[in-house]
């Protein structure tokens, strides 16, 4: 049996989903951050926690330009990997030395927060080249 409930805190733009499945409880925290003066530049972070073990079990960190992803770190296939949509080849790289844990999540989130303007600049340059 699967039970899903959603709690929303509008002040923080934080959504929490709670999943209960076969005596395991997972909480999913999602947050959207505006990165600059333009609201179409934003970051979406999602973290899935195993409540009983008190550990992060999956995450994604996505920099957006409107509807377009610029860079995405995620664990969708059981390994930490990065999608670099700002390069011509749309590179996907597995980060073999990275663990799925809170310190990796925090470090990769900081990478995007500290470098989002550079990633966006490279993305816009690629888009201009593609539209020539």
Task: Give a structural overview.
The protein has one domain (2-130). The protein has one helix at residues 102-130; strands at residues 2-9, 14-21, 24-34, 41-50, 55-65, 68-74, 81-84, 91-94. The N and C termini lie far apart (53 Å). The chain has an 8-stranded antiparallel sheet. The chain is globular, with a radius of gyration of 16 Å. It is built from 1 helix and 8 strands; from the N terminus they run ββββββββα. The chain has 132 residues and is an alpha+beta fold.
Number of helices: 1
> What is the strand arrangement across the widest sheet?
1-2-3-4-5-6-7-8
Fraction of residues in H or I helices:
10-25%
| Relative strand content | over 45%
Structural class: alpha+beta
Rg over CA atoms, rounded to whole Å, is 16 Å
What is the CA–CA distance across the termini? 53 Å
Low-confidence stretches: 1-14
Give average pLDDT, whole number.
83
The biggest sheet, with number of strands, parallel, antiparallel or mixed sense and barrel status, is: 8 strands, antiparallel
Give the ordered list of helices and strands: EEEEEEEEH
Q: Work out the number of β strands.
A: 8
Shape: globular
Short structural summary:
The chain is 22% helix and 48% strand. With 132 residues, it is of the alpha+beta class.
Please tag this protein with its features.
132 residues; alpha+beta; eight-stranded antiparallel beta sheet; 1 helix; 22% helix; disordered N terminus
What is the topology?
Blueprint lengths: L1 E8 L4 E8 L2 E11 L6 E10 L4 E11 L2 E7 L6 E4 L6 E4 L7 H29 L2
Antiparallel strand pairs: 1-2, 2-3, 3-4, 4-5, 5-6, 6-7, 7-8
């Amino acid at each position: 049996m699967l039970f899903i409930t959603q709690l929303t805190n509008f002040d923080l733009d934080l959504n929490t989903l709670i999943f209960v499945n076969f005596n395991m409880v997972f909480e999913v925290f999602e947050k959207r951050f505006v990165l600059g003066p333009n609201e179409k530049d934003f970051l979406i972070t999602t973290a899935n926690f195993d409540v009983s073990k008190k550990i992060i079990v999956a995450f994604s960190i996505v920099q957006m330009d409107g509807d377009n992803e610029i860079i995405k770190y995620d664990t969708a296939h059981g390994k930490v990997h990065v999608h670099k949509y700002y390069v011509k080849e749309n590179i996907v790289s597995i980060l073999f030395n990275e663990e799925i844990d809170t310190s990796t999540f925090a470090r990769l989130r900081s990478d995007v927060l500290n470098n989002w303007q550079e990633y966006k600049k490279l993305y816009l340059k690629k888009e201009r080249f593609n539209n020539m």
